[in-house]
Amino acid sequence: MLLEESEISEHCFDLIFAFDEIVALGYRENVNLAQIRTFTEMDSHEEKVFRAVRETQEREAKAEMKRKAKELQRARQDAERAGKKSPGFGGFGSSGMSNVISATIITDTIEPEKPKVASAPVRSSGSSKALKLGVKGKEVDNFVDKLKSEGENIITSSAGRKASEASKVLQPQVNIESVHLRVEEKISLTCGRDGGLQNMEVLGMITLKVADEKNGCISILINNNDKKGAQLQTHPHVDKKLFNTESLICLKNQEKSFPLNNDLGVLKWRLQSTDESLIPLTINCWPSESGSGCDVNIEYELQDEGLELNEVVITIPLPSGVGAPVVGDMDGQYNHDSRKNILEWSLPVIDEKNKSGSLEFSMDGKPNDFFPIHVSFVSKRNFCDIQVAKVTYVEEGSPVKFSSETSFVVDKYEIL
């Protein structure tokens, strides 16, 4: 396994700190991977106390400055009402100058604190011959084998970047016409670890964008096959009566046209329920304590077989400082992030042909250490079966060429 310079530079400081724990006074110390991770992740309690005290002092100083500024402003207003000059600002142009100074003080004190941005490390422009990994391939392979024997999941940085890019929400390329419609849904769901749906909310919207003026006076036929009980609401400028009777989205004043080059939400819906049968993807986690730690079995099952979920990632928290999990039988792939102490279970597609699967692993810990579990996915099919059937001109009734895209994403999906 060869490492490139860019891959090393991404973790240069982590490597330096890790080597500092391995080598002492020129001699190699007998430490394992778990000890190195514990040493490099240690933080300072005194530093936290110092930061907390400093933040408290800064807040008190700002409050005192605001109070002083208000007193100065109140004194100036009292002096103006009494027809006298403001106290403390006598001399040439005292009145105008006092206004400027007091305004400046108030502005400076009320201005919110800017977030602190960590400066990026500056790389030296000199030669990069000081550190080269990969020259002695046998020693590198032995070190990698040592990490694998301790249960660490080894991936290269390029592979990690590809995995992170694949997990992002990537919309397919759509040939956008002058009339373009987006059907978007997002779900927020919370379930208990022992079963039971605590809350589920699905929010959906159809957004219209017209790029050509000749296509402004149009009507949109909606195909509503929802059987889950979603509540629909049209835009205030849309003829609600016509939509309720004929499922047509059209402006109340049909002589007017939809706004050009502007994303306009013409229809939205909301579904809120605690019915467990409506859960699109169920997750069952069974952690059980054993003599050597805890055995965890996680299962998923697609309840709505009409959905096709892509880029599914099930994230399980892990206890810190106990090493890597030992993964047994599994479907899909997994990635152990030792810095965040999580296990990511990735499944490219879940549909009616691949509606269930499981993952088993074991490690030290208690059953509560593996909750809450978070789920993320994307889908080209929406949850509430509401789609755009066709678009026509209002006067002529002839069809209008249009394009559309559908997305169903996760806002929050967790098992507590």
From TrEMBL:
Residues 68-95 are annotated as: Disordered. Gene3D superfamilies: Mu homology domain, subdomain B. SUPFAM superfamilies: Second domain of Mu2 adaptin subunit (ap50) of ap2 adaptor, SNARE-like. Its main location: cytoplasm. Residues 68-83 have a biased composition (Basic and acidic residues). It is a peripheral membrane protein. Residues 176-416 form the MHD domain. Keywords: Cytoplasm, Cytoplasmic vesicle, ER-Golgi transport, Golgi apparatus, Membrane, Protein transport, Transport. One of its GO terms (cellular component) is COPI vesicle coat. CDD domains: AP_delta-COPI_MHD (cd09254). It is found in: Cytoplasm; Cytoplasmic vesicle, COPI-coated vesicle membrane; Golgi apparatus membrane. One of its GO terms (biological process) is retrograde vesicle-mediated transport, Golgi to endoplasmic reticulum. Oligomeric complex that consists of at least the alpha, beta, beta', gamma, delta, epsilon and zeta subunits. Belongs to the adaptor complexes medium subunit family. Delta-COP subfamily. The coatomer is a cytosolic protein complex that binds to dilysine motifs and reversibly associates with Golgi non-clathrin-coated vesicles, which further mediate biosynthetic protein transport from the ER, via the Golgi up to the trans Golgi network. Coatomer complex is required for budding from Golgi membranes, and is essential for the retrograde Golgi-to-ER transport of dilysine-tagged proteins. This is Coatomer subunit delta.
